[in-house]
Amino acid sequence: MHIMSLHALVSVSGGFLRALRGPERYTSQEVRLRLQSGGQLGGPRTAAVQAAAAQVGGWMRLLPSDAGREDRLGLAAGRLPSVVFWFREGLSSEQIGRRLTPLGESCYGDRAIDAACALIAALLNSRHS
For 123, which of 17, 59, 68, 109 could close a Cys bridge (C-beta 3.0–4.6 Å)? Predict the structure, then answer.
């Protein structure tokens, strides 16, 4: 078999296998990157992330019932839609943490952002399974 034909066969079969496997799963890290204000990422995956973030009822429904416990998210559990809004507006995790609690820190803001991004990723992935 000619080497060019072999390369063409490999590239076609790789594309076919990717199509059979389905789209790549979304991770919470990818969602976080695609939600960031002024982000350089575009394309259909960014549009899908932003559309899913706007479906607050869809991803908030995935929040565990014990998320409001202090050792989990605490008061931030009920404010995750606001957290996503503030994050999209460009607020830092420290600023978000302070808005959530009087003594809030960046780790509190990061935990809330990460939780919201994980829920949005779960909503996106549930559509592709």
Answer: 59
